[in-house]
Amino acid sequence: MQPDTGALRRLLHRRFATFGLVGALALTMTWWFIVARGVWLAIEWATA
Question: How far apart are CA 19 and CA 13, in angstroms?
């Protein structure tokens, strides 16, 4: 009896798609945190 490679492939694809979405969300949130921090520092510097 051979394992169903189609089912295995779908499972891996679904898992990696989830990891990809979570990774993209983390990267986006990190990028916006860096941008917001830069804006905050610019405002602090301009009003000092």
Answer: 10
Query: pLDDT (tens digit, 9 = 90+) per residue, 12-30?
Result: 888 888 889 999 999 999 9
pTM to 2 decimal places: 0.61
Confidence of residue 36 (pLDDT cuts 50, 70, 90): very high
Check the CA dihedral 6-12-14-17 and report its sign: negative
Distance set, CA 36 to CA 11, 21, 47 (Å): 38, 22, 17
Q: Determine the Cα–Cα distance for residues 46 and 37; give it in Å rounded to an integer.
A: 14
